[in-house]
Every structure is written in C-alpha cells, then in structure tokens.
Amino acid sequence: MDGRINGMMCRQIERAFKVITIFLTIAVFASTARGDLSGWRIGIDPGHGGTDPGAVGPTGLQEKEVNLTASLGMRYFLVRQNAEVFMTRTTDVTLSLSSRANFMNSNDVDRSICVHHNSSSNPDPNWHLTYVAEGTGWATSGDLAFDISHRVTDFNGLGFGWSNCGREGVYEENFYMLIYTYMPSVLPEISFISNPLEEQRLYHDRYCYGNGRGMYEGIMDHLGGWGGDAGEVEGHALEIAQLPTEFKLHQSYPNPFNAQTVIPLELPQRSMVKIELFNVSGRNLGTICEGIKEAGWPKVHYNAAHLASGLYFYKVVVEGLEQGGSFMDTGKMLLLK
Fold first, then answer.
1. Where does the MurNAc-LAA domain lie (predicted)?
2. CA distances from 49 to 18, 183, 302 (A)
3. pLDDT digits (tens, 9 = 90+) for 58-108
4. 175-189 tens-digit pLDDT
C-alpha cells in the first residue's frame, strides 16, 4: 500500500514539475504591472507557413517556425491585457498575401503586425528594423514601428539597421501587407536567421517568446496601455495553450537536405519515442533516436553524412507514458550530396 502511494506521489510531483517548466517558459517574461487594452483589436500575421518556409538558417531552421512562435508569444501577452487578437494562422498552413490582407481588413483590426525574420547571403549581419509603408515613417504606423523596434532590441540586444526616413529602427518599404491593409500596419524583421549565432538563439522557444514580449511591450507603449494593479500569470491556461493536443509527426526539414536534417514531433505527454531509418527497399538502416521525450514540440536532429544520396523513410513509434496511447507514422526525406 505504501509503495503504491509513494509511486502515485512521485508521478504527481513529476507532473507538477513539468507544468512548472512549461509555465516558466513565458512566465519569466510576465510583467509585474498589468494594463488594459480592452476595446483594441490587434491583428497578427506570422509570415510564411505551409509550403512557404521563408528564409532558412545555416542548419535548416525555417523562418515560418520562428515567426509563429514569436507571434504566439505576443498574442499571449496581449490577451492577458484584454486585447482582442486576430491571427492569420496559428498552425503551419499556406496562405496567400491577399488572403492575409483581406483577413486583417475584414476583421477591422486597429493595428496589423506582420512578423518576419530577415536573411542575407552574408552570414555576418544581425540587426533589427520594423518596416512601414512609404510616407508613413512619421505617421501612426511609424509611431508603432518605433515603439516595437526599441522594445524588441531592449530584449534581444541587437542594434538597428539603417533608416531611410530618419527615424531610428524604422524603414519605409511598400511591402504587400503594409499597403493593402487599411489600418496602421507594421512589419518587424526581428533578426537575421541567416546569422549562425542568431539561428542558434532562435532554436529556443524562450528566446522567440521574448521577442514576442518585446513586440507586445511596443504595442503597449504605442496604445498607452500600461497601468493597473499587479497581476498573476494564469498558469493553468498557459499549460493548456503550450501543450500539443495530439501526437503528430511533421515533415523533416530541410528537405531535400545535405547532410543534416531535423524531424519535428508533437507530444501531448511524456513519451517513449523511437525513430528508425529505412531505404527504398525497406531495409532497416538503424535507429535515429530512441528514448524518453518530454511533452511539447521536440526536434530530433539527424546527420546523414555517412549515407549515399537517395530517398529514405523514417518511421516513428511513440508510446505515451502518462495517459497511455500510442502513435505510429512514417515520413520521407531526400538526401542530395
């Protein structure tokens, strides 16, 4: 009897620690002073998605992923301040630029923020700029861009790129989402995913959430939303928001690749994960990964430098260790050397 009770207590304690870990991912950024954005409608467009990866970092990190992570972080803080938030996408889907602009216009949002990360063929640059339509650098859009740029760089420590309108951190450029939306609109290019050191920072959700927090704080500065009493972070709501709801295998990236690739998973609970590699003849070439993974969005990195060019298949088998359940799926990847 005592052994069973102790076992139950250990599992409960383990679960509590996992919840706390997820909670702290964003809670560490939570403001001690709560404000109020009641009545404000904020539109967020995480750039790229689906078949459009956006820019790709030196080791294969895709811009569409970090755009979404930073956007979800921004949404979390805005909702806590009672803003009504509209997002063009909350998952990895393909959307046209016209559908994104129409989404903002049809929802009559007060401000539109289109989130991106920059890239260059030169691996050295790494700075921040927020873009606005031509002629708006000193108008309402420029005011928002200025506040967002300064708050984001307060967090990530980057400098500003050159401004063509004389306003630090702001650049005028007629991007689609800036000229085909009817409300004040900005497009933050948070940092350069092409910079090797920055790409490594962007692999961490906590860093991307921090950039989202910076954009949120810029919006608060712009709209005068600061003030109010100290508030508590809603840990239970955050836990629900941050855990996947089902097992899922995503397409490896980059694909085609040479010679390193990443296999993303979604795990709603702590699980035993095994990934095996097969060639086109069905021969088992060995195990890519085998072990326990925590709930969340783990990414399995694989180096295929020892393999010949060709098409390969990876088989994922998952066994849930908390609520039970199992999952199996297969993906394919093309190695080109």
1. 101-220
2. 29, 23, 23
3. 989 999 999 999 999 999 899 989 999 999 999 899 999 999 999 999 999
4. 999 999 999 999 999
Q: Which domain holds residue 260?
A: 243-335
The answer to whether residue 7 is domain-embedded is no
Buried b (16+ CB within 10 A) or exposed e, 154-176: ebbebebbebebebebbbbeebe
Of 225, 240, 255, the last residue of a domain is 240
Q: How far apart are CA 202 and CA 193, in angstroms?
A: 8
Q: Which of 23, 45, 39, 213 is nearest to 114 (CA)?
A: 45
State the total domains in the chain: 2
Are 165 and 297 members of one domain? no
Please count the residues of the chain: 337
For residue 16, give the nearest of 27, 28, 24, 26 by alpha carbon.
24
Residue 15 belongs to what H/E stretch?
helix 2-27
- Look at residues 240, 272, 300 and tell me which one is the last residue of a structural domain: 240
| Residue-wise pLDDT tens digits, 241-278 | 456 788 999 888 788 988 888 898 888 888 999 999 99
Domain shared by 288 and 257, yes or no:
yes
For CA atoms 129, 135, 136, 139, give the dihedral sign. positive
Residue with tokens 């949002």: 109
Assess contact for 73 and 26: CB atoms under 8 A. yes
